[in-house]
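Example record

The entry below shows one chain as it appears in the dataset: sequence first, then structure tokens.
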Amino acid sequence: MRRGRTPTGLLGGSFNPAHGAHRRISLLARAALGLDQVWWLVSPGNPLKPVVGMAPLAARLASARALARRAPIRVSAIERELGTRYTVDTLRALVRRFPRRRFVWLMGSDNLAQFHRWHDWRGIARLVPIAVIGRPGYDGAALASPAMAWLRRYRISATRFRNRAEWSAPALVILRFDPDPRSATVIRRADPDWAERHTGRTLRDQLTHRIVAEPVA
């Protein structure tokens, strides 16, 4: 990638709901990799996750906005506007739409463990660098995964990544921070009505600047 472009992290997910671990790893990754911002891409629907139990997009976006407040994090449901279903298509669209930025894909080790199931996962790796954040209980499966067997040859340190004159892909950075056990699954079990507190709000997407409203019943 060309020098001088703004370095931006991308953290995609359901955010069902967003929680403190999302914010924490985003800020730690930003510091470790020398990023200006992290964009949270709130997915309209994840092909690898069941629809049952998924809160409305507007509620998930609102929970993410609340967690990202006063941080260099921008929250977006841009995939809804782009009409993309798969991460590789979203990334291609973002690279075209924001040519002055250079992106790095952020994901937890739980996602690396099943990355080989993602549509055109090698295409993702060839398009943008990938930074993997360790998650308790998943590191072993991630390191033994088919995707890691392919990506291992492209692994570099965070220091080398941050100081590179140019970014290129494939590139893999493993980031290890103090473990954070928080998860959306645990939060939903403890607070099944969390989405109700985020309904009825009118939010503007922080990338597209379009209104994201609750669907009409």
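Notes for this example: The radius of gyration is 17 Å. The chain has a mean pLDDT of 89.
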